[in-house]
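PROTEIN SPECIFICATION:
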Amino acid sequence: MKRILIALIAFLLLVPAAVLGYQILHNPDRAYSGAAVSDSAAQLERGAYLARAADCVACHTARGGQPYAGGRSIATPFGDLYAPNITPDPATGIGGWSADDFWRAMHNGKGKDGGFLYPAFPYTSYTKVTRGDSDAIYAWLRTVAPVRQQNRDHALRFPYNQRWLLAGWRALYFRPGVFEPSANQSTQWNRGAYLVQGLGHCSACHSNRNVLGATPLRGELSGGLIPISNWYAPALTPLAATGLGDWQEADLAALLKTGVSARSAVYGPMAEVVTQSLQHLSHDDIGAMATYLKSLPQTEAAPAPASLAGAEAERMMEQGAKLYEKHCVDCHRADGSGTPPAYPRLAGNNSIAASAVNPIRMVLNGGYPPSTSGNPRPYGMPPYGPILNDAEVAALVTYIRASWGNHGAPVGPGEVGRYRTVPLE
């Protein structure tokens, strides 16, 4: 019995040590070496474009701060992380990094010193980026104005502040590997897959996360609540009720490029993505992303339509209909069809049906789609939080989520109350 106990203890000690050792020593990034560049000007132009596609500026620029100088707070369920300075300042930025160091971070999630990076930096997606594209981004970042700004220490709770524990997380949820084109698909499809899975890191928001903050290894885009902003990122799968359903590729491409389309408009965190990243991509790349997204297989069963029954539900629907007639019908029309692209349609709107979070926040706070070159003067929605109480907002949102082909569940006043104090971003 004593020998069995000793063997069990040894096993329990050796397995974590083996996992830690493997994660420290395993460096697949070394298998890819940088190639000589014959046209440095073209590489810099390409790097600037790819940095836009990856939306590096979004996390690495604090509100009102210098571009790429870091300091932006990223709230997580485990505490706050602070994005680092990636300007070429040698003391506080990445001025002392080589192209190999940068590639190691992108491909294998390790810093210059070999330490594990927290996966708020989406290396689980960036690992698919090619060495040539990584080198181009690195070369362009070297041209950014250097900013001497010290990085802030992360404010994570114990035990999440122990970086060595990321060895176990990586063993479970991270598989490094450059994107491999599919021989059975077109060049356009492969380009779209590369952008969506890699630089675009779409799964970071459009996938559910588990209790350890990990997204599925296969990167399903089945939608999920974004913990850092409390917005819901709808599914990008073919589900009719909660995904892209019967969307046309042209509508999806318009939404990605301009922020508005005949089917919907973007708000919240996605508005920032369109403003700073997607609107700057070429029409070919946007079209490729739309082609790939529309080809995705259905990865989950369609939810059963929610049914509203009983006197309370009937009362909420009646009250919601009156509030809709008073406040919403002029823009969104009686049948919920809206007047796109100025005023989005509510009928068959996957962002509304999948989760109550987005419609609650829009009714409370209003908002605008992003101002883009394709939609420079967007129409906005006024906030109704100041004039409607929680019960009224709940009734209105319930009515919208249960009308015109939408099958969303009822919303209660308590759910509305939780989002009155949630920051807009």
